[in-house]
């Protein structure tokens, strides 16, 4: 059966690709009302699904070809995905962004507050770890990726300050942190001062709402919000490591996070084995149905830590 449908695809790919709006033809299982079936089909990817009255008879994709059903899937334009560090207009989630004074992080997604659209990412990405001022320029791409003031995409609109438990200057801080780790003194340093945090989050107001889009690279548009639970399959689309998948491995996590020579304590966090690296900060974490479950802000070997979405939503008053 598989070899036969592959042959059918080969026989008809030329005519299908010649139809207006078609950007791809392949073989896959047919999806009906969002549910994948076990029936093989010729999958036709289109920029946009249009009503039949808007298409000529030539451009309409037939319901079946060579004895196999077709499945028309709206994908939008299909772009090369090796340019997450480049300039995007409109800019989707998953690409480089940053406050004018930081290197670069990830544009998470678009959120709404009081009827306005905002760009969501981390405090340390959009607000320079509390150092930014409301109205500061936000660049896309971030400065590390070549962004300049000519690439300004928005202005810092709001952020939740990160409370630091310990902050030491320069190399003194680095040595103290190393010694604390070696001597098992993290907890002692941790609770000497400061408060536990729930989020590392900020929003920016786009200069032009047409310069951003709801789509997240390789994921699509978010479909709402749900609570993260143990064992949940999740995914993220980030500036550095692109699209990665994993599962939720911890909930109700208390964690110490290094910010250069400073330490901040976070509570009510969620952990996943979904891969990430520097520059992925600000990515949103989604389930397989594209519901947002959290905001990535930190990680280590084999672990990615994210803010629980309900805390992000409550503290900034935003929704997907």
Number of strands: 21
CATH class of the largest domain: Mainly Beta
Q: β content, as a range?
A: 35-45%
> Going across the major beta sheet, what is the strand order?
7-6-10-11-14-9-8
Main sheet record: 7 strands, antiparallel
**The CATH homology group name of the largest domain:** Trypsin-like serine proteases
Describe the structure.
The chain has 2 domains: 2-74, no CATH class; 91-316, Trypsin-like serine proteases (Thrombin, subunit H). It has 5 helices and 21 strands. The chain has helices at 2-17, 123-126, 170-182, 186-190, 309-316; strands at residues 22-32, 35-46, 64-65, 68-74, 91-93, 96-99, 105-106, 109-113, 116-121, 137-139, 152-159, 164-167, 196-197, 202-206, 212-216, 233-238, 242-259, 262-272, 284-287, 292-300, 303-308. The strands form 4 sheets. A 7-stranded antiparallel sheet has the order 7-6-10-11-14-9-8. A hairpin with a 2-residue loop joins strand 1 (22-32) and strand 2. The model is unreliable at 182-193 (pLDDT under 50).
Topology:
Layout: H1 2-17, E1 22-32, E2 35-46, E3 64-65, E4 68-74, E5 91-93, E6 96-99, E7 105-106, E8 109-113, E9 116-121, H2 123-126, E10 137-139, E11 152-159, E12 164-167, H3 170-182, H4 186-190, E13 196-197, E14 202-206, E15 212-216, E16 233-238, E17 242-259, E18 262-272, E19 284-287, E20 292-300, E21 303-308, H5 309-316
Parallel strand pairs: 2-4, 5-15, 13-18
Antiparallel strand pairs: 1-2, 3-4, 6-7, 6-10, 8-9, 9-14, 10-11, 11-14, 12-18, 16-17, 16-19, 17-18, 18-21, 19-20, 20-21
């Amino acid at each position: 059966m598989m070899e036969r449908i592959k042959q059918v695809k080969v026989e008809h790919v030329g005519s299908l690709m010649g139809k207006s709006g078609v950007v791809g033809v392949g073989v896959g299982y047919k999806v009906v009302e969002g549910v994948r079936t076990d029936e093989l089909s010729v999958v036709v990817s289109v920029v946009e699904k249009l009503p039949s009255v808007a298409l000529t008879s030539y451009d309409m994709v037939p319901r079946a070809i060579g004895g196999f059903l077709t499945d028309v899937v709206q994908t939008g334009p299909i772009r090369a995905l090796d340019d997450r560090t480049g300039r995007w207009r409109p800019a989707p989630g998953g690409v480089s962004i940053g406050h004018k004074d930081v290197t670069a992080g990830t544009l998470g997604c678009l959120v709404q507050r009081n009827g306005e659209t905002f760009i969501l990412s981390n405090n340390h990405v959009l607000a320079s770890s509390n150092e930014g001022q409301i109205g500061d320029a936000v660049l896309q791409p971030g400065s590390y990726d070549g962004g300049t003031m000519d690439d300004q995409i928005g202005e810092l609109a709001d952020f939740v300050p990160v409370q630091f438990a310990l902050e030491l200057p320069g190399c003194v801080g680095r040595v103290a942190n190393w010694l604390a780790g070696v001597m098992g003194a993290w907890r002692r340093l941790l609770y000497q001062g400061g408060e536990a945090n729930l989020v590392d989050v900020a929003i920016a107001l786009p200069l032009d709402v047409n310069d951003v889009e709801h789509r997240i690279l390789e994921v699509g548009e978010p479909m709402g919000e749900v609570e993260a639970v143990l064992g949940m399959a999740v995914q993220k689309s980030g500036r550095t490591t692109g699209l990665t998948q994993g599962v939720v491995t911890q909930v109700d996590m208390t964690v110490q996070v290094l910010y250069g020579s400073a330490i901040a304590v976070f509570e009510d966090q969620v952990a996943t084995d979904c891969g990430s690296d520097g520059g992925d900060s600000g990515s949103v974490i989604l389930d397989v149905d594209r519901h947002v479950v959290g905001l990535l802000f930190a990680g280590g070997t084999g672990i990615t830590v994210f803010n629980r979405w309900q805390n992000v939503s409550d503290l900034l008053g935003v929704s997907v």
